[in-house]
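## retry 2 of 3
previous attempt timed out at serialization; input unchanged, resubmitting
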Amino acid sequence: MRVSPIEVKSSKRYSARSLEKFKDKFASRVGTRYVLHPKPLSAEGDLVRLPLYMSMVL
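## retry succeeded, writing output
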């Protein structure tokens, strides 16, 4: 079973460090990683940054 972790960020400056650690530890089980935040939609590899208003699509 694949797991897609979600992290919520509220500040303007943030990192996805905890998602990286989670992926390193459980690499075979981790699918797409999501960060919910106030900025526009962006994606880098398996990390997707979604604005909060788009969280309903998860």
